[in-house]
Design brief:
The chain is built from 26 helices and 8 strands. The radius of gyration is 25 Å and the shape is elongated. The protein is 44% helix and 4% strand. The longest helix has 18 residues, at 100-117. By secondary structure, the chain is mainly alpha-helical. The protein has helices at 3-8, 62-73, 92-95, 100-117, 123-132, 134-143, 162-175, 179-189, 205-218, 223-231, 234-239, 259-266, 295-304, 352-366, 368-383, 390-402, 407-415, 418-422, 437-448, 466-469, 472-475, 518-533, 540-546, 552-563, 571-581, 588-601; strands at residues 15-18, 23-26, 308-309, 328-329, 339-341, 344-346, 433-434, 607-608.
Length: 614
Amino acid sequence: MTGLIRLAQTVHGVSTRISPNDVRVRARPMVIGSPTRALPVCKTPRQSQGHVSLITRGTINMVDQLRRTLLKGIASLGTVAVISPLMPGISFAATSGLADAELMELRRRAARLANYATFGANEDEVNRIIDTGWETWVDQQLALPITPLYPSATLNTDKPTVNQFYGAWWTNALAAPDQLHQRVGFALSQWFVISSDHPFLSGRSWTVINFYDRLLQGIDGNFTDLLNQVSTHPAMCGYLSSLYNAKADPVKGTVADENYAREVMQLFSCGAEKRHRNGNFAVDEQGQAIANYDEQDVREMARVFTGIGLKDQATWGKERGDWLSPVIEYPEYHDSGNKQLMGQTIPAGLSLFEDIDAALGIIIEQRGNSVAGNFSRFMIQRLTLSNPKYTYVRDVAIAFKDSNWDIKTLVRAILLHPDAIDGRSDNRSETGRLKEPLLWYAGARRAIAPPRDQALAPLTGPLFDNTELRTGEAFNQKPLGAFSVFGFFPWDYQPESIRGEGTGYIEYVYPESYLYNWNNITTVSNKLWGNVIKRDNDVVRFMEVLTSGVSNEEFSDFVLDKILFGNHRPTLKVEMVALLDQRGSVEYKGKVRDALMLATTCPDSFIINHYQEA
């Protein structure tokens, strides 16, 4: 029994019962994620007749569905015939001559890349990948111009509000043509963490937006430059208190603030403990981890980040100023003495920015393997596999470091590695990754109703209502809204059901499961219902197929192909047909809604994975 199966068994007690007018949600207060964070009480949602919450109509136990999915799906992954590692493109004319099974296998694999590299597979993206092949599609995506959050049709004021920020973010996530940039940018925002809820930033959405755009633009450059730009951005300086950080004053008994000094090493570069390029921790002769830095290094690094202030602000310590431009130096507050960092000397007399260049250069030079292994493993986890084999991390890290830390090279190496293409590392390894709530919702939204306006006009309606998607209470996750500098979840998080079980999967981690609990699973499901599935204009193509005279079996095939692209248990079709059979033959609207709700909230839809019966 694999780790994901055990994870699924922790999701229990969620049940729904359909009444003519609403949905009653009952749940025991048990969560997958952290038990220490208080979560809001789930209110009873009011929906129209026929709403199918989570899995199917009637009373359902969530864990039974998840367990059946994972037992029959994950246990048999990777049993299909191997396709060429680079997945060469096949023209649409050529696909007409393929057998159904061969074409479905192409669609499964194309959808896998789309789920890795976009905010969710949809019909257009899957067809493009089949037509061009994996490698060409990745290169074409990386060659596209980056779509920023600002300025755009959604954000066209000097000081946009937080509502406009989230509206622009969702517009790009769902509709931007450079989906790979957007997906990598979201991953980078979980490495270089700031939060729009921080007191310095909560009323300054424009600097948060500018910071996110800086991450997007950084994809076209290298990691060292991006680390420097992040370190001197007002949003980061305000968030981690290097803004107006003054040098030590022996008379007053003050010392430089160590907050950013610690985090730039621990979280943004090499990590607290040494790693090999394969991502594994280095150990000494006693088998103990080896520190990358000590407390003296932290104190010396803190001296580097002194004298930082806002541009266009003449007075030290004032928050008014330019929150969009890089910070400037206030020389009288900068410690320009010599500094000893990781065994290296930074000479005296340097300016703030010369000190920063030197200090970050020392990290990269002296702890390069740790940086490569640490960052490569993180980005693999965010894009493809939660538990990559060490050879996968090693191969990506080597390509990354040898390219002078080029981020596009890193992304190519992650997406085009055989482990990503095959969807697993070896016969024993856990394959794929659990979707975090934003990706689950976005993927379902993109699959059901692809954006109609390729010009990226602002998307409107309840989807982008501030109360719908801005707050963390709905999804337990929001862009640039992590709970702490450590991000949305610990990178090495294991649910309680996995730890101490003595299985062969004990070392596996499931970071995204930290965010899931009975409340937000129900809430996200209900938002899919109210924001997308219940909106008749978004489901026209499904209605047209159903009313053309197809059987429930044929309609189920169509829905599962367009939503999950074959990446599901074969028994899911049986469940969908049984669900549709409960409806009258002409209850078209109810059937469409039932089928879409099942396809987007079933356990199969939670996992970026590959299902195939042995």
